Amino acid sequence: MSNYQRYNFAVLLGTGLSFLLLGFGSTRAQGIRSKVNKGNQFYQKKKYEQALSQYKDALLDDPLNEVALFNQADALYKMKKYDQAIENYQKVVGSKDLKLSAKAFYNIGNAYFKQNKLQESIKAYKKALELNPGDYETKFNLELARARLKELSKKQPRNRKNQNKNQKPIKPSEWAKKLKEQAEQLVARKKYKDAYNLMMDGMKKDNTVRAFESFIRRIKDVVDIVEAHDAV
């Protein structure tokens, strides 16, 4: 039986990282298991700093423990400390458990994507697929990163030409902020097209919804990928 389990394993718009659970059986591992299990409880309650503290304590007992390293990386990711998360995931990618290595590369890809380092993200997703070729989520995020990179490459020349240093950023209204929250809830339920339509309709009613154009573009990328996949 596998010693890890997925929790809300999703695409980047609703990022849910793989989260390992312990399967230690030896007496020597009881202390580590207790600390990591406490960390897991904090993690599930979204108390990531407390979770991180427990994982660090476990790693003092066993610095090479892959479970603690992986979960520590997950906590760092949730705290938006992406470079530190990547560093910890990289300590796991050489695991004898190929699926675990694939999941680590997948999460490295997500961390790079969050930093808009799309080329690095694409490389990580490709490595994940080399180890686990059939993983749909990795394929999906790979296509999402490629689509985003293509979009940016097209817009860069146009942006440089039309750049206006004095242009003030759009400040979203309270209604626009609430609308985005509703769209995020739809995204979390993987209702990407509904979320996209909601934001586009909202833009017709309130021009400040344009403040979330990057969010809307990301949803549109996912909608296009899903529709292309369903058409195959």
Q: Summarize this, please?
A:
The chain is globular and about 60 Å long. It has 232 residues and is mainly α. The chain has two domains: 4-146, Tetratricopeptide repeat domain (Serine Threonine Protein Phosphatase 5, Tetratricopeptide repeat), CATH 1.25.40.10; 170-231.
Task: Describe this entry's structure for a reader.
The chain is mainly α and 232 residues long. It has 2 domains: 4-146, Tetratricopeptide repeat domain (Serine Threonine Protein Phosphatase 5, Tetratricopeptide repeat, Alpha Horseshoe), CATH 1.25.40.10; 170-231. The chain has helices spanning 30-44, 48-61, 66-78, 82-90, 98-114, 118-131, 136-162, 174-188, 192-205, 213-231; strands at residues 4-5, 19-20. It has a two-stranded antiparallel ribbon. The longest helix is centred in the middle third of the chain and has 27 residues, at 136-162. The protein is globular. The two termini are 34 Å apart. The relative contact order is 0.09. The model is unreliable at 1-17 (pLDDT under 50).
* DSSP summary: helix tally: 10
CATH class group of the largest domain: Mainly Alpha
Question: Helicity, in percent?
Answer: 55-70%
Tell me the β content: under 5%
Major β-sheet strand ordering: 1-2
Give the mean pLDDT: 82
- H/E element order: EEHHHHHHHHHH
What is the third-level CATH name, the topology of the largest domain?
Serine Threonine Protein Phosphatase 5, Tetratricopeptide repeat
Biggest sheet, open or closed, and with what strands and sense? 2 strands, antiparallel
CATH architecture verdict of the largest domain: Alpha Horseshoe
Overall, the morphology is globular
* Count of DSSP strands: 2
CATH superfamily of the largest domain: Tetratricopeptide repeat domain
- Given the helix and strand composition, which structural class is it? mainly alpha
Task: Show unreliable segments.
Answer: 1-17
Specify Rg, calculated over alpha carbons: 20 Å
What is the straight-line distance between the termini? 34 Å
What count of domains describes the coordinates? 2
